[in-house]
Amino acid sequence: MTNRYVYGVVESADVEFETDAVAGADRVYTISHRRFGAVVSDIDTTDPEETDEDAQRHDDVLREIMEYDGETTIVPMQFGMAFESNRELKNVLRGARPAFRRAMRDIEGKIELGLKLVSEEDADVDRDALEEDVANRFEPIAAQSVANDLFSDRLVLNRSYLVDRDRQAEFDDAVAQFEDERDDLVVQYTGPFAPYSFVDVKIGAQQ
Q1: A Gene Ontology biological process annotation (predicted)?
Q2: How far, in Å, CA of 17 to CA of 44, rounded?
Q3: In 3-state terms, what secondary structure has residue 197?
Q4: Containing H/E element for 107?
Q5: Could you tell me which residues come within 8 angstroms of residue 110 by beta carbon, excluding any fewer than 6 positions away?
Q6: pLDDT surpasses 70 at 202
Q7: In contact, 18 and 26? CB cutoff 8 Å
Q8: Exposed, middle or buried, 110 (CB in 10 Å: 0-12/13-18/19+)?
Q9: Model confidence at 201, in pLDDT bands (50, 70, 90)?
Q10: Hey, how many other C-beta atoms are within 10 angstroms of the C-beta on 69?
Q11: Where are the beta strands (DSSP E) in 57-174?
Q12: Is the previous residue joined to 98 through a cis bond, with omega within 30 degrees of 0?
């Protein structure tokens, strides 16, 4: 029996293309209910194993969807959402429609960018001054930002930014200038990603 693996939800019925998808699938397509559509690929389980390879495929497919037809806004799902039937998935789309509508409004035309700042060994970084400097540089460009975990002693700042697509180059330039000015930090700048950090939509059980 073929199940449906979900990458995210779009306001479209026609996202469809061939690609290297999760669990060896070679095509993604859309299952729609009224205004919204879930972009899916076929899979033989409702409990996929999160291998490094498939986690990367999940992210890569999301990027392809974001670039589909010039530009497509997608409410991304975390890895592992799979459903037994089109009917079950359409029921989920129906039940979560208000949440998808809010999320789509918040992220339409936007991308997520990540910024990690790691102190050089033996550097003495004033974290309060650093946070103020970073806020002054990047918050005016971003629509929103959120702090992420500091998972090592040398990681002094870890933030995700929601940025309008047409301001990405401006954000890139601001990061480059900051990096040029800070010899005491290693700058790790990532993205663009689908805006995982700025949506919180749960879509039902997979059983």
Answers
A1: gas vesicle organization
A2: 20
A3: helix
A4: helix 97-107
A5: 73, 143, 162, 163, 164, 165, 195, 198
A6: no
A7: yes
A8: buried
A9: confident
A10: 10
A11: 74-76, 82-83, 110-119, 144-147, 155-164
A12: no
Q: What are phi and psi of 90, to 5 degrees?
A: -65, -35
| Six-digit token string for 108 | 């339409």
Contacts 24+ apart (CB under 8 A), 45-51: 45/3, 45/82, 46/3, 46/82, 46/83, 46/84, 46/206, 46/207, 47/80, 47/82, 47/206, 48/5, 48/22, 48/23, 48/79, 48/80, 48/82, 50/79, 50/80
The pLDDT of 149-174, averaged and rounded, is 96
Interval 103-114 mean pLDDT? 94
Q: Other C-beta atoms within 10 Å of 159: how many?
A: 20
Tokens 């693996």: give the residue: 5
User: Residue 58 class from Cβ within 10 Å (0-12 exposed, 13-18 middle, 19+ buried)?
Assistant: buried
Distance of alpha carbon 17 from alpha carbon 6, whole angstroms: 15
SS3 of the chain: helix, strand, coil, percent, to 5: 35, 30, 35
Which pair of structure tokens corresponds to residue 154?
């040398």
Which residues, 6 or more positions from 199, have their beta carbon under 8 angstroms from its beta carbon? 75, 76, 103, 106, 107
| Tokens standing for residue 39 | 């972009």
Residues 67-94 have pLDDT tens digits of 998 889 999 999 999 999 999 999 989 9
Sole residue written with tokens 């601001």: 174
